[in-house]
Design brief:
Blueprint (H helix, E strand, L loop, with lengths): L2 H28 L7 H34 L10 H7 L1 H7 L5 H15 L7 H4 L8 H10 L6 H5 L1 H16 L8 H28 L5 H5 L14 H17 L1
Helix pairs in contact: 1-2, 1-10, 1-12, 2-9, 2-10, 4-5, 10-12
């Protein structure tokens, strides 16, 4: 998979979800003048669930696309960040818990060395885990588990994710007759759209800057590696940014 293809997949995923969120917001606003009606209340409650659904759905699918992109690059496991190396070694770590006998652990170490010299291949579905409820904690584990940084923007939005998105979804999905104001739901939809934008941008920057490579861990410690290329080109950056603008104009 080329970088441009990855960008296109993320762009289509993002555009579809933002368009639906935009239409949902319009319907909620249109019903706001009759805020006490059954239909308006039903629409806001539905929007609370759909807002969460697009949050979890996009994070999961975009992350899976990212791991598939890494799988397609034929990268040596040893050249990747520790978290991505660990993703290839989960079964070996589980085996190591079975026995502390030196002979057994020696075999495990041999397997680990062999895998680290091989090519990166993991099942995206096995390492992209939204844990059924994509709380801020689950999101942090997912992001860092695929070798990305848990950004300050995400930490700032942690209370919103947990107390608004996740809890609001629980209230409705578990049968509570929860009530939401028009302003509250509109703010929620807009906040989700911004989170989707930020995460898609982070994934794109990761591909553009090769942040999945171990060299980036070294650079943070002042160690450079002249053999690492910086790809893809600025053309891909422009392609992604234009795609995001197009998605917003369609919304």
């Amino acid at each position: 998979m080329k970088a441009e293809e990855f960008v296109d997949r993320i762009d289509k995923e993002l555009a579809h979800r933002k368009l639906e969120l935009s239409r949902l917001k319009i319907q909620v606003i249109d019903g706001g003048s009759d805020s006490d009606s059954d239909q308006a209340s039903w629409m806001r409650r539905s929007a609370a669930v759909l807002s969460y659904a697009h949050w979890e759905g996009f994070v999961k699918q975009a992350s899976i696309h990212y791991v598939r992109y890494l799988n397609s690059q034929n990268l040596p496991v040893s050249a990747l960040k520790r978290e991505l190396q660990a993703a290839c070694l989960v079964s070996q770590f589980k085996r190591a818990r079975e026995s502390l006998k030196v002979r057994f652990l020696g075999e495990v170490l041999h397997d680990i060395d062999r895998i680290r010299q091989g090519v990166f291949r993991v099942s995206p579905e096995k390492i992209v885990d939204t844990e059924s409820n994509l709380t801020s904690s689950a999101f942090g584990d997912l992001v860092q588990g695929i070798g990305l940084d848990y950004l300050d923007e995400y930490r700032t939005r942690g209370p919103f994710i947990d107390t608004k998105l996740v809890y609001g979804r629980h209230q409705v999905a578990h049968g509570e007759l929860a009530t939401f104001s028009t302003t509250e739901i509109v703010d929620r939809i807009e906040a989700v759209a911004k989170l989707l934008d930020r995460y898609s941008q982070q994934l794109f920057e990761a591909v553009r800057d090769n942040v999945f490579l171990a060299v980036h861990d070294n650079l943070s410690k002042g160690i450079s590696d002249p053999d690492i290329e910086e790809v893809p080109s600025q053309r891909t950056v422009d392609s992604f940014n234009q795609g995001s603008r197009d998605a917003e104009s369609r919304g």
